[in-house]
What does this fold into?
Amino acid sequence: MSVEQLGDMRTEYSKSLLALGEEDPNIVVLGADTTDSLKTASFGKKFPERFFNVGIAEANLVSVAAGLAYSGKTAFASTYAIFLPGRCLDQIRNSIAYPSPGDKKGLNVKLVVAHGGLTAGADGGSHQQNEDIAVMRAIPNMKVLVPSDSVAVSKLTWIIAQKYGPFYMRMARPKTTIIHSESQEFQIGKAITLRDGSDSTITACGITVKMALDAADLLQQDGISCRVIDCFSVKPIDKELLEKAARETGSIVTCEEHNVMGGFGSAVLEVISESCPVPIRRIGVQDKFGESARDNEIPQLLEKHGITSINIANAVKVLRRKQ
Amino acid sequence: MGLNHYQIKRKILKARKLVIQATAAAGSGHPGGSFSMAEIMGCLFYKYLRYDPKNPSWEDRDKLILSKGHAAPGLFSNLAVAGYFDISEMQTLRQFGSKLQGHPDLKCPGVEFCGGSLGIGLSYSVGNALAARLDGKDQRIYTIIGDGESDEGQIWEAAMTAAKYKIDNMTVFLDRNFIQQDSYTEEIMPLDEKLLGDDLSEMWKDASRWKTGDKWRSFGWNVIEIDGHRIEQILDAIRRANQTKGLPSIIIARTIKGKGVEHMEDNPLWHGKAPNPEIVPIIEDELESQFMIAPSIIAGDMLNLEKEVKRCVDGRADYIHLDVMDGQFVPNKTFDHTKIKELRPLTLIPFDAHLMIDEPIKHVRNYIDAGSDIITVHAEVCDESSFGEICDILHSNQVGIGLAINPDTELPLWCYKFVELLDQIIIMSVVPGKSGQKFIESTHEKIQRIAKDLKEHKFEGYIEADGGVNLENIGACFEDGARAFVGGSAIIGQNDVRMIIKEFRNQALESRRRLLIKKAHDLGGTELVNKWIDLHIVGEKKDRLVQIAKELGSQ
It folds into this structure.
């Protein structure tokens, strides 16, 4: 087993924005007093006239971005996850997703957030956004991406810059294990099969993709062959690939760093229960709030909420017994 | 588009009528806030806003962003009048499948913002303004926010952002109509100091309590405060805002919710309620019978006309009537264009220049240059050709066109060729030449006859009664069909010009009330009269209407 490499999602986001800014003069970046943390400040240094820091005013951030987008700009608006869907659902719905000029759907705004989920950590439960996937998913025209590593962030930043429409992309705060190779191709609406297997499927998004891989390793030791799917595109979701996995492996475990109610697991349930019902277990926050945890304690916090590779592996075993 | 003052007013009237018809057809909607901003909309659509109804997405167009989106009918009606879609489509307001949604929506051509959730539009405007700046476009963003809407914190977030980025390619209007959904703004969430909204006229008196402007000034904005129903003030404010560089500008327009329809005015009930279809024809008549008072300053101190103009300003005259006499067409001599030019800087109130002079075609350009807003020439000294030429000159200079006739003159036949261009017809009720004469009684019959005749010829301007009009006969002149009233010694000759103008207005208003009660009676007898009267719940209007109905035997 090779040594794990870590990557920083925000750094990759920032690098991609800089390169995009060079290439496309229509790209503008907006922040809300968190531009150092989001690392978007570097874009502002290079392209000061295309960078707008509107202060601690997230509703304003979203709607100013909407105005720029309506006038033809590709607007990236970034701050912490807790402040965007959490604070500005109305502005996101009514000023970004709803307005549809001509044949287009929604305005061309990219909401890219950091500190999604429990791993926001030390800031505490008030700052751990575990409901954003559910909320963003429910808005028509909004697409929702939860990349699993910094490679995915970098590639997806390029893709959403070039693809018209509103996107919500969620990054995690800590450095995360690099999962994808630089040559990995990404497509909106297409999940990536990281490991093939025939006994069960584990599908995950964000930081839990790494746990899914670890769980598959554990299960392999018990002779269970698990398919692992990185479903970074939560909406649109890769219905085809998930159905195929359900048919071929007979059960699915979903993992997310998010409330199981309405989140990624729910999205999978919606698809599978309608077209190819198989037993499903959802690993994720069980409708609870988080609490502070220092960096070295993050695994404990995740464990308290049941988000571990062992729990994933156990869920697979439970499902297999039912099959 | 450059229209003159009167043409703008006519467009506003058309738009107001469409709002009434559309909301009545829909059975819901927001007429109150549509009417408080009606003049603002008119000045934008027909003077300042650059757009192409045939190409709504023209890249260099100005953008009008209605942040107070519930006033959608007030926006749609102007889009219809401006030619974005057929006027008949207004009937589909709020209907399933219509592009005229309950709140402004990009589905409708000309709409730039999906409004309705309040507080968003100003931020969105800032975004659009920043984009225009980045693209180096000579493009302006016009935004209308509400006073109830100003409860939203996001308005103030956007206010700070606009100041930070020195957004000067955006002109914002605050439609300060004092009413939000639940009640008066000062009761729900005060913007000003202790303004209790039962009597709007009281609020107007005490400008010292107006604090809204201070809020915006402290946020780093250029603040222009105006009467939001006066076209000349709105136009001037836009001009000043658009010239201001280096900081954002807001025009705080003091307005009346439901303006133009007495029972809706200053009445929180009409924030979001549609009129009953059976009263629509009465409301239409009410809207069509707006009237104006124009004091004639030659009735005052001829040696100090500056003072007389100032008295008209204090008295809140609608227009200032300027009698130009040359000593030839009439025996007397008053002043000429040079005097008008001197008076012009004293006020924004429109100048209604009545040229009692020979060969007006020779002089009309001077009166345009002097700053007249409407110029009226006498039929006795024009013929078809010279009047046609005068029309062309006035029209191309966006100056109103008037034609006057003396007591012993009838409208010349050639004037019907210009009837669609005419903004005003003055029917002299004294022999012109000097102030202080008695109203010639036979003029009543003459006004009635001409009003009827002109209506048949689709004349949309004002008939102005001029000469000997006073408190005793203004009501009768109104009933005759006159809608503009020149007051000479009866106004300017009085000590308290403001009070007398108010009384002039009251008399005309009473006359209009009679007219509308008669209309209600014609349409639906006593039952409809009572329904109509019962709508008037604010102030003492209802008592007066009951009285009038009794006098007319309609109750």
About this structure: The mean pLDDT of chain B is 94.
